[in-house]
Amino acid sequence: MQLWPAFLLGFAGSLHCAAMCGPLLLLTPHVGRSTAGFVGSRMLYHAGRLSMYGGIGAIMGTVGQTFAIAGLQRWVSLAAGLALLLGLLFAARCKFNASAWRFVTWLKAAFAALLRRRTYTSIFCLGAINGLLPCGLVYAAAAGAAATATALGGFLFMIIFGVATLPMLLGIGLAGRNLQLWLGPRAGKLIPASIVFVAALLILRSLALGIPYISPDLSDGCATCH
After folding, report:
1. d(Cα 34, Cα 146) in Å, to the nearest integer?
2. What angle do CA 163, 54, 74 make, to 5 degrees?
């Protein structure tokens, strides 16, 4: 799978990221009182987030590669696309309380504990925890990472996704709460549209229609290169 969908997903979905992750970012402390310390802390936070994304991408790409070796790459892509659509439908019809997950509860407790510290290590870890919090956009990107069918491809897919969200999130970090409040009401429709976009690409890919970059023929030896 080409990497350009990762950038589009991250860039188009960054408005949602700003609305959902903005409050966490605004709570994040910074080391020192200088401007350099403030900016450096924000960049370190995002470095932690991108590192977690990259790790998730590498794992998902390895999973996809395992199935590709077994000749099931098309089915992986189809299953990932359908899972995203079904998950979106489920989320629209059901009210699900993510805080009920023990794992999520643990993440929130760890995040709260780290907020009380003002070290570079704690700020990096805060960003890493942010990368693990439940998010439909991250799930969509992880599905795309699996479809790359290589650990490196999955790693790059998730890193590019994360980098594409940086401009908006950095704007939140620098502009403060006013921008986050302005974005909130405008973010609701972006995440479903972004997920549908990636799901459609994954399903098209599984059909192997011979369309370069979108639905390549996965029967040849270079299937994972596309």
Report:
1. 42
2. 100
Segments making up each domain of the chain, as ranges: 4-225
Give residue 51's pLDDT.
96
Q: Among all chains, which residue has been given the structure tokens 């489920």?
A: 90
Confidence of residue 101 (pLDDT cuts 50, 70, 90): low
- As a 3-state breakdown, the chain gives helix, strand, coil percent values, each rounded to 5, of 80, 0, 20
Task: Give the span between the Cα atoms of 129 and 118, in whole angstroms.
Answer: 16
Contact 206, 75 (CB under 8 A): yes
* Cα–Cα distance measured from residue 7 to residue 161, given in angstroms and rounded to the nearest whole number: 5
Q: Identify the three-state secondary structure at position 204.
A: helix
Question: Looking at the predicted structure, is the pLDDT value of residue 49 above 90?
Answer: yes
* Position 155 pLDDT exceeds 90: yes
Distance CA 219, CA 216 (A): 9
Question: Can you give the length of the chain in residues?
Answer: 226
Q: What is the pTM of this model?
A: 0.76
Q: How would you class 204 by CB atoms within 10 Å of its CB: exposed for 0-12, middle for 13-18, buried for 19 or more?
A: middle
**Which two tokens mark 220?**
């040849």
